[in-house]
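Review form for a predicted model. The reviewer records the input and the model, then writes brief findings.
Reviewer: anonymous (R2)
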Amino acid sequence: MAFYDTAIDRLGLRDWCEAGAADTPMSMAQLLARTQGGGGETGETLPFPSLDTLHEACAAIPQTRDMTAGVEAAFLAVKDGLKFVLDPVTQPLSWLLEAALYLFTAVPWWVLIPLLIWATWAAARRRAVTGFVAAVFLFFGLIDHLDVALQTLSIIFVCTGLCVLLGVPIGILMSRSDRTQRVMLPVLDMLQTLPSFVYLIPLIFLFSVTEPKLYGIAIILYAIVPVIRLTDLGIRLVDRDVIEAADAFGMSERQKLFGVQLPLALPNIMAGVNQTIMMSLAMVVIASLVSAPGLGVLVLRGIRNLELGVGLVAGFGIVLLAVVLDRCSKAALQRIDPAHKSQ
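Model under review:
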Protein backbone atom coordinates (compact mmCIF):
# COMPACT_ATOMS: atom_id res chain seq x y z
CA MET A 1 0.00 0.00 0.00
CA ALA A 2 3.08 2.20 -0.18
CA PHE A 3 1.94 3.83 -3.41
CA TYR A 4 -1.30 5.13 -1.88
CA ASP A 5 0.45 6.21 1.33
CA THR A 6 2.88 8.24 -0.77
CA ALA A 7 0.10 9.70 -2.91
CA ILE A 8 -1.85 10.81 0.16
CA ASP A 9 1.27 12.41 1.67
CA ARG A 10 2.03 14.28 -1.58
CA LEU A 11 -1.53 15.54 -1.79
CA GLY A 12 -1.23 16.89 1.75
CA LEU A 13 -4.11 14.79 3.05
CA ARG A 14 -2.27 13.02 5.86
CA ASP A 15 -3.56 15.37 8.56
CA TRP A 16 -7.13 14.92 7.28
CA CYS A 17 -6.71 11.15 7.26
CA GLU A 18 -5.37 11.07 10.80
CA ALA A 19 -7.98 13.55 12.05
CA GLY A 20 -10.79 11.54 10.45
CA ALA A 21 -9.49 8.21 11.66
CA ALA A 22 -11.84 6.42 14.00
CA ASP A 23 -11.59 3.28 16.03
CA THR A 24 -13.31 1.18 13.40
CA PRO A 25 -13.17 -2.62 13.59
CA MET A 26 -10.56 -4.27 11.44
CA SER A 27 -11.48 -5.97 8.21
CA MET A 28 -10.91 -9.70 7.81
CA ALA A 29 -7.88 -9.05 5.60
CA GLN A 30 -6.35 -6.77 8.23
CA LEU A 31 -7.06 -9.28 10.99
CA LEU A 32 -5.43 -12.13 9.02
CA ALA A 33 -2.44 -9.94 8.20
CA ARG A 34 -1.97 -9.09 11.88
CA THR A 35 -2.33 -12.68 13.11
CA GLN A 36 0.09 -13.90 10.44
CA GLY A 37 2.56 -11.23 11.35
CA GLY A 38 2.62 -9.76 7.87
CA GLY A 39 1.85 -6.34 6.55
CA GLY A 40 -1.02 -7.52 4.40
CA GLU A 41 1.02 -7.28 1.19
CA THR A 42 -0.01 -9.70 -1.53
CA GLY A 43 2.91 -9.08 -3.84
CA GLU A 44 1.05 -6.53 -5.96
CA THR A 45 3.00 -3.39 -6.65
CA LEU A 46 -0.17 -1.43 -7.37
CA PRO A 47 -3.39 -2.96 -6.00
CA PHE A 48 -6.70 -1.74 -7.33
CA PRO A 49 -7.81 1.41 -5.44
CA SER A 50 -10.86 -0.16 -3.80
CA LEU A 51 -12.43 1.41 -0.74
CA ASP A 52 -10.82 -1.17 1.55
CA THR A 53 -7.40 -0.62 -0.02
CA LEU A 54 -7.65 3.17 0.30
CA HIS A 55 -8.92 2.80 3.86
CA GLU A 56 -5.71 1.05 4.83
CA ALA A 57 -3.75 4.04 3.56
CA CYS A 58 -6.19 6.64 4.92
CA ALA A 59 -8.50 5.67 7.77
CA ALA A 60 -10.83 8.60 7.00
CA ILE A 61 -11.94 6.89 3.76
CA PRO A 62 -14.89 4.59 4.45
CA GLN A 63 -14.69 0.84 3.89
CA THR A 64 -16.92 -1.20 1.60
CA ARG A 65 -18.89 -2.48 4.57
CA ASP A 66 -19.61 1.14 5.54
CA MET A 67 -21.25 1.61 2.12
CA THR A 68 -23.40 -1.51 2.44
CA ALA A 69 -24.31 -0.55 6.00
CA GLY A 70 -25.31 2.88 4.72
CA VAL A 71 -27.59 1.35 2.08
CA GLU A 72 -29.21 -0.81 4.75
CA ALA A 73 -29.61 2.13 7.12
CA ALA A 74 -31.17 4.27 4.37
CA PHE A 75 -33.71 1.57 3.57
CA LEU A 76 -34.57 0.99 7.22
CA ALA A 77 -35.02 4.74 7.67
CA VAL A 78 -37.76 4.89 5.01
CA LYS A 79 -39.19 1.43 5.74
CA ASP A 80 -41.94 2.60 8.08
CA GLY A 81 -43.07 5.29 5.63
CA LEU A 82 -43.09 2.84 2.72
CA LYS A 83 -44.98 0.27 4.75
CA PHE A 84 -47.56 2.89 5.79
CA VAL A 85 -48.19 3.77 2.12
CA LEU A 86 -47.88 0.31 0.54
CA ASP A 87 -49.87 -1.69 3.11
CA PRO A 88 -53.33 -0.37 2.21
CA VAL A 89 -52.51 -0.12 -1.50
CA THR A 90 -51.36 -3.73 -1.78
CA GLN A 91 -53.85 -5.30 0.63
CA PRO A 92 -56.34 -6.09 -2.21
CA LEU A 93 -53.62 -8.24 -3.77
CA SER A 94 -53.57 -10.40 -0.62
CA TRP A 95 -57.35 -10.70 -0.75
CA LEU A 96 -57.28 -11.71 -4.42
CA LEU A 97 -54.61 -14.35 -3.87
CA GLU A 98 -56.35 -15.75 -0.80
CA ALA A 99 -59.68 -15.87 -2.65
CA ALA A 100 -58.13 -17.58 -5.68
CA LEU A 101 -56.36 -20.15 -3.50
CA TYR A 102 -59.59 -20.84 -1.60
CA LEU A 103 -61.59 -21.15 -4.81
CA PHE A 104 -59.17 -23.53 -6.51
CA THR A 105 -58.85 -25.74 -3.44
CA ALA A 106 -62.44 -25.63 -2.09
CA VAL A 107 -64.30 -26.34 -5.35
CA PRO A 108 -64.59 -30.12 -5.91
CA TRP A 109 -62.25 -31.50 -8.52
CA TRP A 110 -65.14 -32.94 -10.55
CA VAL A 111 -66.44 -29.37 -10.98
CA LEU A 112 -63.19 -27.40 -11.30
CA ILE A 113 -61.30 -29.66 -13.72
CA PRO A 114 -64.13 -29.79 -16.31
CA LEU A 115 -64.41 -26.00 -16.05
CA LEU A 116 -60.68 -25.58 -16.70
CA ILE A 117 -60.83 -28.01 -19.64
CA TRP A 118 -63.83 -26.12 -21.06
CA ALA A 119 -61.95 -22.81 -20.65
CA THR A 120 -59.03 -24.34 -22.55
CA TRP A 121 -61.33 -25.36 -25.38
CA ALA A 122 -62.97 -21.92 -25.43
CA ALA A 123 -59.57 -20.22 -25.69
CA ALA A 124 -57.76 -22.60 -28.03
CA ARG A 125 -60.48 -24.42 -30.03
CA ARG A 126 -57.96 -27.20 -30.63
CA ARG A 127 -58.63 -30.80 -29.68
CA ALA A 128 -54.96 -31.66 -29.27
CA VAL A 129 -54.34 -28.84 -26.79
CA THR A 130 -57.54 -29.56 -24.85
CA GLY A 131 -56.76 -33.28 -24.71
CA PHE A 132 -53.24 -32.56 -23.50
CA VAL A 133 -54.56 -30.31 -20.72
CA ALA A 134 -56.99 -33.03 -19.62
CA ALA A 135 -54.18 -35.61 -19.61
CA VAL A 136 -51.96 -33.33 -17.50
CA PHE A 137 -54.68 -32.83 -14.88
CA LEU A 138 -55.29 -36.60 -14.87
CA PHE A 139 -51.56 -37.16 -14.30
CA PHE A 140 -51.49 -34.67 -11.40
CA GLY A 141 -54.47 -36.42 -9.83
CA LEU A 142 -52.90 -39.87 -10.17
CA ILE A 143 -49.68 -38.83 -8.42
CA ASP A 144 -51.61 -36.87 -5.72
CA HIS A 145 -50.20 -33.51 -6.85
CA LEU A 146 -53.47 -32.00 -8.05
CA ASP A 147 -53.99 -29.70 -5.06
CA VAL A 148 -50.51 -28.17 -5.16
CA ALA A 149 -50.67 -27.82 -8.96
CA LEU A 150 -53.99 -25.96 -8.67
CA GLN A 151 -52.48 -23.69 -6.01
CA THR A 152 -49.66 -22.78 -8.38
CA LEU A 153 -52.16 -22.26 -11.19
CA SER A 154 -54.34 -19.97 -9.07
CA ILE A 155 -51.38 -17.73 -8.19
CA ILE A 156 -50.37 -17.53 -11.86
CA PHE A 157 -53.91 -16.59 -12.93
CA VAL A 158 -54.12 -13.74 -10.40
CA CYS A 159 -50.64 -12.36 -10.97
CA THR A 160 -50.78 -12.67 -14.76
CA GLY A 161 -54.18 -11.00 -14.83
CA LEU A 162 -52.87 -8.07 -12.78
CA CYS A 163 -49.76 -7.86 -14.97
CA VAL A 164 -52.00 -7.49 -18.04
CA LEU A 165 -54.30 -4.96 -16.35
CA LEU A 166 -51.33 -2.83 -15.29
CA GLY A 167 -48.89 -3.54 -18.10
CA VAL A 168 -51.07 -2.87 -21.15
CA PRO A 169 -52.00 0.70 -20.08
CA ILE A 170 -48.35 1.43 -19.25
CA GLY A 171 -47.33 0.11 -22.67
CA ILE A 172 -49.98 2.30 -24.32
CA LEU A 173 -48.65 5.36 -22.49
CA MET A 174 -45.11 4.52 -23.59
CA SER A 175 -46.20 4.15 -27.21
CA ARG A 176 -47.91 7.56 -27.19
CA SER A 177 -45.06 9.48 -25.58
CA ASP A 178 -41.35 9.24 -26.39
CA ARG A 179 -40.54 10.97 -23.10
CA THR A 180 -42.48 8.38 -21.12
CA GLN A 181 -40.66 5.65 -23.03
CA ARG A 182 -37.26 7.17 -22.22
CA VAL A 183 -38.19 7.33 -18.52
CA MET A 184 -39.62 3.81 -18.39
CA LEU A 185 -36.95 1.93 -20.35
CA PRO A 186 -34.25 2.12 -17.63
CA VAL A 187 -36.81 0.98 -15.05
CA LEU A 188 -37.85 -1.95 -17.22
CA ASP A 189 -34.20 -2.83 -17.91
CA MET A 190 -33.54 -2.92 -14.17
CA LEU A 191 -36.62 -5.06 -13.46
CA GLN A 192 -35.67 -7.46 -16.26
CA THR A 193 -32.05 -7.92 -15.22
CA LEU A 194 -32.40 -7.85 -11.43
CA PRO A 195 -31.87 -11.39 -10.08
CA SER A 196 -35.15 -12.95 -9.05
CA PHE A 197 -34.01 -13.61 -5.47
CA VAL A 198 -33.21 -9.91 -4.99
CA TYR A 199 -36.90 -9.01 -5.39
CA LEU A 200 -37.62 -10.81 -2.14
CA ILE A 201 -35.03 -9.02 0.02
CA PRO A 202 -36.70 -5.59 0.51
CA LEU A 203 -40.19 -7.12 0.52
CA ILE A 204 -39.30 -9.35 3.46
CA PHE A 205 -38.51 -6.20 5.48
CA LEU A 206 -41.75 -4.50 4.40
CA PHE A 207 -44.29 -7.30 4.78
CA SER A 208 -44.81 -10.37 6.90
CA VAL A 209 -43.95 -13.69 5.26
CA THR A 210 -47.47 -14.86 6.09
CA GLU A 211 -49.01 -12.21 3.79
CA PRO A 212 -49.67 -13.39 0.22
CA LYS A 213 -48.92 -9.94 -1.14
CA LEU A 214 -45.25 -10.48 -0.29
CA TYR A 215 -44.79 -13.05 -3.04
CA GLY A 216 -47.55 -11.52 -5.19
CA ILE A 217 -45.68 -8.21 -5.54
CA ALA A 218 -42.43 -10.04 -6.32
CA ILE A 219 -44.13 -12.09 -9.06
CA ILE A 220 -45.81 -9.05 -10.62
CA LEU A 221 -42.63 -6.94 -10.64
CA TYR A 222 -40.67 -9.79 -12.16
CA ALA A 223 -43.22 -10.79 -14.81
CA ILE A 224 -44.78 -7.50 -15.91
CA VAL A 225 -41.92 -6.36 -18.14
CA PRO A 226 -42.67 -8.41 -21.32
CA VAL A 227 -46.30 -7.31 -21.60
CA ILE A 228 -45.28 -3.64 -21.20
CA ARG A 229 -42.49 -3.85 -23.76
CA LEU A 230 -44.47 -5.78 -26.36
CA THR A 231 -47.56 -3.57 -25.99
CA ASP A 232 -45.40 -0.53 -26.64
CA LEU A 233 -43.64 -2.26 -29.55
CA GLY A 234 -46.87 -3.58 -31.08
CA ILE A 235 -48.55 -0.16 -31.17
CA ARG A 236 -45.44 1.53 -32.53
CA LEU A 237 -45.23 -1.07 -35.33
CA VAL A 238 -48.74 -0.30 -36.60
CA ASP A 239 -48.45 0.80 -40.23
CA ARG A 240 -48.31 4.57 -40.57
CA ASP A 241 -50.52 4.40 -43.65
CA VAL A 242 -53.27 2.83 -41.55
CA ILE A 243 -52.97 5.61 -38.97
CA GLU A 244 -53.12 8.24 -41.72
CA ALA A 245 -56.25 6.57 -43.14
CA ALA A 246 -57.85 6.65 -39.69
CA ASP A 247 -56.99 10.35 -39.40
CA ALA A 248 -58.50 10.96 -42.84
CA PHE A 249 -61.76 9.38 -41.64
CA GLY A 250 -61.79 11.80 -38.71
CA MET A 251 -61.33 9.20 -35.96
CA SER A 252 -60.56 10.51 -32.50
CA GLU A 253 -57.49 9.35 -30.55
CA ARG A 254 -59.67 7.01 -28.50
CA GLN A 255 -61.28 5.54 -31.62
CA LYS A 256 -57.88 5.03 -33.25
CA LEU A 257 -56.54 3.32 -30.15
CA PHE A 258 -59.39 0.85 -29.63
CA GLY A 259 -60.47 0.49 -33.26
CA VAL A 260 -57.14 0.39 -35.09
CA GLN A 261 -53.98 0.28 -32.99
CA LEU A 262 -54.88 -2.28 -30.31
CA PRO A 263 -56.48 -4.78 -32.73
CA LEU A 264 -53.43 -4.62 -35.02
CA ALA A 265 -51.04 -4.82 -32.04
CA LEU A 266 -52.92 -7.71 -30.43
CA PRO A 267 -50.55 -10.46 -31.69
CA ASN A 268 -47.60 -8.66 -30.07
CA ILE A 269 -49.59 -8.07 -26.89
CA MET A 270 -50.55 -11.74 -26.72
CA ALA A 271 -46.91 -12.70 -27.20
CA GLY A 272 -46.11 -10.46 -24.21
CA VAL A 273 -48.84 -12.17 -22.19
CA ASN A 274 -47.31 -15.55 -23.06
CA GLN A 275 -43.89 -14.46 -21.80
CA THR A 276 -45.46 -12.94 -18.68
CA ILE A 277 -47.14 -16.27 -17.89
CA MET A 278 -43.82 -18.11 -18.22
CA MET A 279 -42.01 -15.62 -16.00
CA SER A 280 -44.80 -15.76 -13.41
CA LEU A 281 -44.41 -19.53 -13.24
CA ALA A 282 -40.66 -19.22 -12.79
CA MET A 283 -41.07 -16.72 -9.96
CA VAL A 284 -43.78 -18.77 -8.22
CA VAL A 285 -41.21 -21.52 -7.63
CA ILE A 286 -38.69 -19.09 -6.15
CA ALA A 287 -41.43 -17.41 -4.08
CA SER A 288 -41.91 -20.70 -2.21
CA LEU A 289 -38.99 -19.47 -0.09
CA VAL A 290 -41.37 -16.87 1.36
CA SER A 291 -44.41 -19.08 1.94
CA ALA A 292 -45.89 -19.18 -1.58
CA PRO A 293 -47.86 -22.46 -1.79
CA GLY A 294 -47.84 -24.89 -4.68
CA LEU A 295 -45.36 -27.09 -6.48
CA GLY A 296 -42.46 -24.86 -5.49
CA VAL A 297 -42.89 -25.99 -1.87
CA LEU A 298 -42.21 -29.58 -2.93
CA VAL A 299 -39.13 -28.50 -4.89
CA LEU A 300 -37.90 -26.65 -1.81
CA ARG A 301 -38.64 -29.71 0.34
CA GLY A 302 -36.60 -31.87 -2.02
CA ILE A 303 -33.65 -29.49 -1.67
CA ARG A 304 -33.85 -29.11 2.10
CA ASN A 305 -34.39 -32.77 2.94
CA LEU A 306 -32.37 -34.20 0.04
CA GLU A 307 -35.48 -36.02 -1.21
CA LEU A 308 -34.48 -36.57 -4.81
CA GLY A 309 -37.74 -38.14 -5.97
CA VAL A 310 -39.95 -35.45 -4.43
CA GLY A 311 -37.93 -32.65 -6.02
CA LEU A 312 -37.73 -34.27 -9.47
CA VAL A 313 -41.43 -35.15 -9.64
CA ALA A 314 -42.42 -31.63 -8.55
CA GLY A 315 -40.00 -30.17 -11.08
CA PHE A 316 -41.51 -32.31 -13.83
CA GLY A 317 -44.95 -31.10 -12.75
CA ILE A 318 -43.79 -27.49 -13.13
CA VAL A 319 -42.55 -28.32 -16.62
CA LEU A 320 -45.97 -29.77 -17.50
CA LEU A 321 -47.72 -26.66 -16.19
CA ALA A 322 -45.38 -24.47 -18.25
CA VAL A 323 -46.10 -26.48 -21.39
CA VAL A 324 -49.86 -26.33 -20.75
CA LEU A 325 -49.85 -22.56 -20.25
CA ASP A 326 -47.53 -22.01 -23.21
CA ARG A 327 -49.57 -24.14 -25.61
CA CYS A 328 -52.89 -22.62 -24.49
CA SER A 329 -51.67 -19.04 -24.85
CA LYS A 330 -50.08 -19.74 -28.25
CA ALA A 331 -53.22 -21.49 -29.48
CA ALA A 332 -55.26 -18.47 -28.39
CA LEU A 333 -52.81 -16.22 -30.24
CA GLN A 334 -53.14 -18.33 -33.35
CA ARG A 335 -56.92 -17.93 -33.21
CA ILE A 336 -56.50 -14.15 -33.01
CA ASP A 337 -53.92 -14.04 -35.78
CA PRO A 338 -54.09 -17.11 -38.07
CA ALA A 339 -50.89 -15.98 -39.79
CA HIS A 340 -49.00 -16.47 -36.50
CA LYS A 341 -47.35 -19.89 -36.52
CA SER A 342 -47.17 -21.62 -33.19
CA GLN A 343 -43.68 -22.52 -32.11
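Findings: Confidence is low (pLDDT under 50) at residues 39-43.
Further findings: Residues 64-106 form the longest helix (43 residues).
Recommendation: see findings above.
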